Amino acid sequence: xxxQAKQLSGKVAVVTGATGAVGSSLxxxxxxxxxxxxxxxxxxxxxxxxxxxxxxxxxxxxxxxxSDRVAYTxxxxxxxxxxxxxxxxxxxxxxxxxxxxxxxxxxMSQRILDxxxxxxxxxxxxxxxxxxxxxxxxxxxxxSGASWLAGGGVATYCASKFGLLGYSEAVKMELRGSxxxxxxxxxxxxxxxxxxxxxxxxxVRAVDPSEVADGIIRVLERPKFAEFxxxxxxxxSLGFSAVPYKLRHMLTRLSRTDLLLLQADQSKRVEYExxxxxxxxxxxxxxxxxxxxxxx
Length: 296
Known about the structure:
The chain has 296 residues and is α/β, with parallel strands linked by helices. The chain is built from nine helices and seven strands. The longest helix is centred in the middle third of the chain and has 29 residues, at 106-134. The termini are far apart. Mean pLDDT is 89; it is low at 284-296.
């Protein structure tokens, strides 16, 4: 018998990466289900635009650089002051610049780890402490097929997503009996700016951002640890990871997925890569909820 879906109405959620394709879709879908949503991303201007398009007072757009752990804590404090205790933390924000591993700038490697993994670790700890006091809550970290399957061209990204999966699974074990849930949602290639110029993966279709948002909604309504979007990426990820490395690497070569990302059409990625690179120069510049510079 299927679990009865949990009611989301009246809950409070934080969604990072909220101006991106997945984050904005998720914020909209949560609001439609009666959830109050704090939207986090780097640009306050873009957040305001997305909030205006949703057109409801149940969204709170506030800029945040998720890699700034002090600002993240202040952000959660402000959300709880203005909306109430956080019931759902949805970590969607991530970056995926493409380059050969030995050509990637050290600063970029650090930025990828800070955004894709460091922010996950510190926000999960912070949110879980709050949730455990109340005996309820749910943290959803968006993983990737790259959490199981490595690929050339995104070595640091793979490291961050492998780390996200391992961290979330370990936390799952420690949260047992606390009333607090943690899940990973695992999309294949998402049709978004991040995937521009990428070739198709054989046997796995690219997914719309709304499908990933729906996957997050599903685990909030019916908690489980891993939700694969589409299911085929789960078959591929779990199947490949169950075979010996020598065979796995042979299969990736035969399927031409080992160097797939290095073969991306870089002419279609110029805008995205430039936007990510600009974060190295000035990730800050907005005002935080307390009125101070918040590194956003």
